[in-house]
């Protein structure tokens, strides 16, 4: 029996084909950094060739039609190059970085309400001028500002202008292997410098300015937070989840609770996404189709729904996943209202991605943007085939199976990316989503009801108690499931290559199951064989690795001696106990290097503190006053690691050690490291500053 003819996705949504060269252009510009002249030459050349093609005789145009398509792709690539260049603040003639020098003052406008951190207040500031002596140079750009906790919050508000006299520091990575690339993340937000300000480092000016609409958004956000904090009295954890679930405010979330949501596969509930906007959309649709003055006008319904959706999106912080959903709903609503027809979901997806990338091409690297589109695409393609695997007569069980099919379909296209970014897989995601998704929808509607009834004290109290009880129930279920030893598959290593191969396996075999095309099965099998070979090669590389790693953990000592999959930790015990510190600073490297066995001793490693020998490398860890009298002179060492601010000098150490390299870890104060570096420079000895240059990694021979 012949297979039914299936229309390819790229023919259902032509814009999808145009999106590919556009994203290629964005990536080319970011990684290659073409100059404006090169971009303009490419843009003029490709656009000229594209339009000159229409002047050819009809027969030639028909013959060379593929060439015309290639020219269109090249033109879109050039347009993407220009848009990406334009959105890079460093390319602008008035970027403050072109004028600022150490010692200059900056006129900065506070661009958001201050956010309280554990030891400071944080805010983004917009630079308006660089002050050189008595000359003010008008400029632009954004800064990350940290204020010490000295009654700052009451003194500074959104829109205030301040004079900053503190030295700017470039935003840098920790340099720890496998660590989060914060420098690149900040660059995508157009943040390249930061300033840590004490009270003497800044002065508030008398003149301030603010955008009225943004002020309205910030005020509305504060009002929502005040209502939730006042009426939800179940506990701090419940209030934190309520704030995150409704408006995406995450500052009050408990880190361990967030980790539990992540481990069980429902962290998307507390990260505002398309699911939340979809629930709001359904509520608005239900309301406006029943209001007497609105239900008769499709145009008025559409305008009111879109206005409410966009205000909600801005209220939640305008995350990429929310904006994606808002843009998609805009296209869907506009299609229904203007053209009186339902647009293809693939066209809506491609169009929304195209619009978002035109507005901000750096969304392409946003994890929320990627996971949002992957999840929706997975649901659109796979939900119906998964649902039709089982036929269930009971309508209640069938409804549960529909929800399960949505979760399974979304997981099919998101789990390779999740493994790449988060290195774990929630084994019980299906169970937790079946419970938490409907429950979170009820909680979201309850919170909206709480806001609407907040002016009626009696009603607000009882709705607040009900919402708090539901939040407590959801937290309790998630925490209990998280306690199960098999709830999460953790420490999963992943590379770009392994992730693409995993996608090749999933897509090929899923398409084979849908179309029954045996060639797709073979493609999936080939991808699996290459994936297995890559993993085997990785295991072989792990088995023979030998390294010394000095981590960049501010104010702490942290050293790993690595031998195969085993490691020995030398450092502060708190890093073994504090999950947050360990997960952020040490865990990424151990996942990258596939370190699974912590050991008290390693083969070919010997120690008599402060002296160590590991393989063919000899090193010392000096973290206290050095007992020179008890140490024989002229000891040859490969590395001396200075830690915990020991009262020593480089000149004094060189009298006892013939050392090739001095390493200063992040537990030492900055002024002491600068002093040691000056000594090393004078003595012509190599040095490595971990806080400035990132983690120190040395390969060790056997």
Care to give the gist of this entry?
This protein is α+β, with helices and mostly antiparallel strands and 702 residues long. The protein has 25 helices and 24 strands. It has five domains: 79 residues; 115 residues, Beta Barrel (OB fold (Dihydrolipoamide Acetyltransferase, E2P)), CATH 2.40.50; 210 residues, no CATH class; 48 residues; 154 residues, no CATH class.
What does this molecule look like?
This protein is 53% helix and 15% strand. It contains 25 helices and 24 strands. Strands 1, 2, 3, 4, 5, 6, 7, 8 and 9 form a nine-stranded mixed beta sheet that branches. It has a six-stranded mixed beta sheet with strand order 16-17-18-20-22-23. A five-stranded mixed beta sheet has the order 15-14-13-12-24, with no helix packed on it. With 702 residues, the chain is an alpha+beta fold. The chain folds into five domains: 9-87; 96-210, OB fold (Dihydrolipoamide Acetyltransferase, E2P); 215-361 and 427-489, no CATH class; 496-543; 546-699, no CATH class. A hairpin with a 3-residue loop joins strand 2 and strand 3 (120-132). Helix 2 (14-32) runs parallel beside helix 14, helix 3 runs antiparallel to helix 5 and helix 15 (367-387) runs antiparallel to helix 16 (395-422). It is globular. The relative contact order is 0.07.
């Amino acid at each position: 029996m012949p297979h039914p003819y299936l229309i390819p996705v790229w023919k259902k949504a032509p814009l999808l084909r145009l999106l590919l060269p556009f994203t290629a252009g964005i990536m080319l510009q970011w990684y290659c950094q073409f100059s404006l002249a090169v971009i303009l030459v490419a843009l003029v050349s490709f656009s000229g060739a594209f339009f000159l093609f229409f002047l050819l005789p009809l027969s030639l145009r028909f013959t060379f039609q593929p060439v015309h398509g290639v020219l269109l792709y090249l033109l879109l690539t050039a347009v993407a190059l220009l848009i990406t260049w334009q959105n890079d603040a460093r390319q602008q003639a008035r970027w403050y970085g072109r004028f600022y020098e150490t010692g200059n003052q900056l006129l900065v406008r506070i661009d958001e309400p201050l956010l309280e951190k554990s030891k400071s207040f944080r805010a983004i500031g917009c630079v308006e001028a660089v002050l050189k002596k008595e000359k003010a140079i008008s400029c632009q750009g954004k800064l990350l500002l940290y204020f010490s906790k000295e009654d700052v919050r009451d003194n500074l508000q959104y829109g205030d202008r301040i004079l900053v006299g503190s030295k700017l520091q470039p935003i840098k990575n920790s340099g720890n292997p496998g660590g989060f690339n914060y420098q690149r993340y900040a660059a995508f937000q157009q943040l390249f410098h930061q300033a840590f300000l004490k009270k003497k480092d800044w002065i508030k000016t008398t003149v301030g300015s603010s955008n009225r609409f943004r002020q309205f958004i910030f005020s509305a956000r504060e009002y929502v937070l005040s209502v939730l904090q006042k009426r939800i009295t179940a506990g701090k954890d419940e209030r934190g989840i309520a704030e995150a679930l409704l408006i995406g405010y995450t500052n009050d979330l408990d880190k361990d609770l967030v980790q539990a949501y992540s481990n069980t596969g429902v962290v998307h509930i507390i990260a505002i996404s398309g699911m939340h906007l979809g629930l709001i959309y359904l509520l608005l649709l239900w309301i406006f189709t029943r209001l007497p003055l609105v239900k008769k006008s499709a145009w008025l319904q559409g305008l009111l729904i879109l206005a409410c959706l966009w205000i909600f999106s801005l209220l939640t912080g305008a995350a990429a996943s929310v904006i994606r959903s808002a843009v998609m709903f805009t296209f869907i609503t506009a299609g229904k209202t203007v053209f009186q027809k339902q647009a293809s979901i693939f066209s809506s997806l491609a169009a929304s991605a195209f619009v978002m990338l035109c507005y901000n091409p750096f969304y392409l690297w946003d994890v929320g943007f990627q996971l949002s589109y992957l999840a929706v695409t997975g649901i659109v393609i796979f939900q119906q085939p998964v649902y039709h695997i089982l036929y269930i007569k009971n309508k209640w069980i069938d409804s549960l199976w529909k929800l399960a099919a949505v979760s399974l379909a979304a997981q099919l296209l998101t789990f390779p990316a999740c493994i790449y970014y988060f290195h774990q897989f929630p084994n019980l995601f299906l169970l937790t989503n079946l419970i938490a998704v409907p429950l979170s929808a009820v909680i979201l509607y309850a919170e909206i009801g709480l806001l609407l009834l907040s002016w009626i004290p009696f009603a607000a109290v009882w709705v607040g108690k009900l919402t708090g009880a539901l939040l407590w129930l959801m937290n309790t279920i998630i925490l209990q499931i998280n306690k199960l030893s098999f709830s999460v598959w953790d420490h999963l290593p992943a590379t770009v290559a392994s992730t693409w191969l995993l996608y090749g396996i999933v897509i090929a075999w899923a398409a084979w199951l849908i179309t029954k095309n045996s060639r797709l099965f073979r493609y999936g099998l080939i991808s699996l064989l290459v994936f297995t070979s890559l993993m085997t090669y990785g295991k072989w590389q792990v088995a023979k690795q030998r390294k010394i790693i000095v981590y960049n953990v501010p104010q702490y000592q942290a050293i790993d001696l690595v031998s195969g999959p085993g490691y020995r930790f030398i450092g502060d015990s708190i890093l073994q106990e504090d999950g947050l510190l360990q997960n952020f600073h040490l865990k990424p490297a151990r996942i990258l290097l596939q370190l699974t066995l912590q050991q008290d001793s390693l083969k070919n490693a010997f120690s008599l503190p402060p002296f160590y020998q590991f393989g063919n490398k000899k090193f010392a860890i000096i973290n206290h006053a050095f007992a020179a009298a008890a140490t024989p002179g002229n000891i040859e060492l490969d590395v001396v690691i200075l830690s915990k601010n020991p009262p020593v000098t480089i000149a004094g150490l060189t009298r006892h050690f013939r050392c090739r390299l001095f390493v200063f870890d992040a537990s030492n104060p900055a002024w002491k490291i600068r002093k040691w570096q000056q000594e090393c420079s004078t003595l012509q000895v190599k040095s490595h500053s971990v806080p400035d240059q990132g983690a120190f990694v040395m390969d060790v021979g056997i």
